[in-house]
What does this fold into?
Amino acid sequence: MLNDALHTKLHPLLAYTLLFLIYTSTFRIFATLPLESIHQSLSTFAIILLSGYYLLSMFLNFRRSRITRLDILMWVFIIVNFLAAFKGHEVFGQPYYYGIMAQRSVLLSLSGILLISLLNKGWITINQVEKSFLYISLSLLFIFYFFFLFVNPVKFTDAEFVAYSPIRGYRYRFQFALVIMLLFYSLFKISHEQKSRFVIIAIMILFYLIYFLQSRTTLVVLAITIMIYFARNFTTREKLRNTMIYGGLGFVAVTLLFSLGYTSLFDKYHLLYQNVFNVFLGESPDEASSAVRFMEFNTALDYIKKNPLLGNGFISNQWNGGWHDLLGYFYPVDIGILGNVFVFGILGTVVIYLPFFYSLSMSRKVRTNHVFFKTCEYMLLFFFLCMFFSAVNIRDSSSIIFLVCLLYYFRYHYSPQTDVYSVSPNPVTT
It folds into this structure.
C-alpha cells in the first residue's frame, strides 16, 4: 500500500509544470530573453529549494549509507567552483559573497539530482521529461525566430543577449543549448526512427545557426560532433551513401547561391574564419573580436604564470564593474580552456572535466537506441568540445550536470522493458 502510494504519478499538469520550472532554471532560459528579472527570482527560489532538498536527502542517505558516485562527483564539482570564490578574494580582493553568488549556476546543478529522485519514485516518467524538452525547445526555436525576424536587436544593446561586431553587426545571442539539443534529437529521430517530419525542424535550426547566429565556435563544434556521431553509428556503405546524398545536396545548394549572386554570407564567413586562422599563425587579425581575444589570451597567460595550480578565481559583474573594470575587456568565457585554467587553475580544470569522463564511462555501458539518451550523450560531447574554444562551463555548469544526471538515470535505473522507470534497489555505493 505504502509502496503503491510512493510510486503514484503526479497529475500530468503538475508534472509538466514542475519539469518546465526545472528546465527553465537549469538552462537559464529567461536569462537571455527580456525577462532577466524573472530569471533572477526563479533561480534564487530554485537554489533555496534545491539546496534544502539536497541537504535533507544527504542527511537521510548518510543514515542509510547510500552515497553514490554521482553524489561525490557533485560535491567535488561544487567545491572546485566555490574555491574560485576564495581565489577571487585572495587575488583581486572580491568579497566571498560575490564570488559565491557568481557561481549560482553550480547550485542549480542539483536539479539533476532532484530529477533522478522524481523518476525513481515514479512521480514522473522519462517520457514526460523527453516531451517537456521537446515542447520547450520547439517553443524557444519559434521565439528566437520571432526576435530575429521582427524585433530589432538595437533596442537591447545593453542586454547580455545582444552582441555587436563590425562584420556581423548587432545580433542576438540567446541561451541556445536546448535548441542545439533539439537539432541532435531531430537528427537522431530521422536516422534511428525514420521520422521524416523532423527534417523540417533540423533545416530550420541549421538555417538559424548559419544565417542568423553566425557563431564560428558553435558551427565548428557542431560539425565535429556530427562527424563523430556519423563515424560511430553508420556502416561504411551507409557513410558513403549519406556522404554522396547530403554532400551532393550541399554542393548543389552552394553552387545555386553563388550562381544567383548571393555571396555576401560566404564572404562574411571567409573573413571570420580567416581572422581566426591569422591568430593561430601569430598574425594581427583584422576583425575586432579576434583582436580582443588575442589580447585576452595574453592577459590570461600573465595571471596563469602567477597562480598556475589553483587559478585566480571568478569575479562577479556585480562587484566593482566585474572583469571589465579590473582588467579591461577581459572575459574568461571567451578564451576556452585557457579561461578555465585562468579561473580554476590546472588542478581545478582537470576536475571540471571529470563529469565528461564519468559520462563517457556510463554511456559505454548503456545498450539502448533511446533517442533521448543519444541526445543527452551527444549534447554532453558538444559541451565538452565547446570548452576547448569557449569556457561554457562557467555559465552552463547546471546544464552540463543536468545531462550527466540523465545519463546516470539511463545507466542505473532505466528499464527498456517498461520504457517508464525502474527503481534500483541497490544503488551504486563507494
Summary: The chain has a mean pLDDT of 80. The longest strand covers residues 162-165. Residues 2-233+287-412 form one domain.
